[in-house]
Amino acid sequence: MIKKAVIPAAGWGTRFLPATKAIPKEMLPLVDKPAIQYIVEEAVTAGIEDILIITSRNKKAIEDHFDRFPDLENFLKSKKKENLLGLIKMIAQMAEIHYIRQKEQLGLGHAVLCARKFVGQDPFAVLLGDDIVINEPNCLQQLMAVFKETQGVVIAVQEVTREEVNRYGIIDPASENDRLFLVKDMVEKPLPERAPSNLAIIGRYILLPEIFPVLAKIPPGAGGEIQLTDALKVLARQGKVYAYKFQGRRYDVGDKLGFLQATVEFALTHPELAAPFKAYLTTLLSSKTGFQEVATGREI
């Protein structure tokens, strides 16, 4: 059973500047919940008990979010806001959450390497905060089921268009069994004409502790950083890496458009906001004048 998970959250969040100058990108809200909470909830639902969040300077807001807040709890209790009180208590009780700082921004592979002592000799999950997947069972549960059968490294993949392959790590599959692929190699952000497939790696992994000695020796790759993909390539050549084409709706919330899409779609399923927000969007999109007003008078 996999009981440990690692969530790298040390990045600068430059795509969301200036919003992320003082606020971690992982704390940007999707309606009324920060993005990283969706990731933690996925891990907990999959049975994870201990979570290590890799942070950096100016990320203390993440720790505060998953901690107790006695003053706020007392205030909500005095105002008899029991629903909100239960909600914020639940956030602090979801799992045992640990933290370590990545002191230098040396890449995703280096961030995972920072978890070596936390992981020990156990298989573990890695969840990246830029990818939120909605499905039942969730994405991590699907990968765990594959791991139970293969006992090997499992990475989540999805099909993308040929025009999009240069944005992702792309696998070179050796064989296919329904949604499961044995991976013989992978290429980081290839040109469309050189991509071995259109199966893109997204931010969910089941890894084994044998990844650590590989990461410790791997030279810097793209961008001068230690790349997790480069370490996985080594294991893939040993026949130890599987890819699973997960089921579910994936949102790339590390991208501005993906973040907006997630915000709108989550609002449309929110128990309190769904009906009034849908009515607002209907009115906005059907009224040219109203749409122009929202756009500060510019023609759209």
Average pLDDT, all residues:
91
- Indicate the overall shape: globular
Main sheet, how many strands, which sense, barrel?
A: 9 strands, mixed
- Taken in chain order, the helices and strands follow as EEEHEHHHEHHEEHEEEEHHEEHHH
Q: Provide the CATH architecture of the largest domain.
A: Alpha-Beta Complex
Structural class determined from secondary elements: alpha/beta
End-to-end separation in angstroms reads 53 Å
Q: What do we call the CATH topology of the largest domain?
A: Spore Coat Polysaccharide Biosynthesis Protein SpsA, Chain A
CATH superfamily of the largest domain: Spore Coat Polysaccharide Biosynthesis Protein SpsA, Chain A
Total beta strand runs: 13
Proportion in helices: 25-40%
Radius of gyration: 21 Å
Number of helices: 12
Question: Can you list the strand order of the major beta sheet?
Answer: 5-4-1-6-11-8-12-10-9
Tally of domains: 2
Work out the strand percent.
15-25%
Spans of at least 5 consecutive residues whose pLDDT stays below 50 are none
Question: Which CATH class of the largest domain is shown?
Answer: Alpha Beta
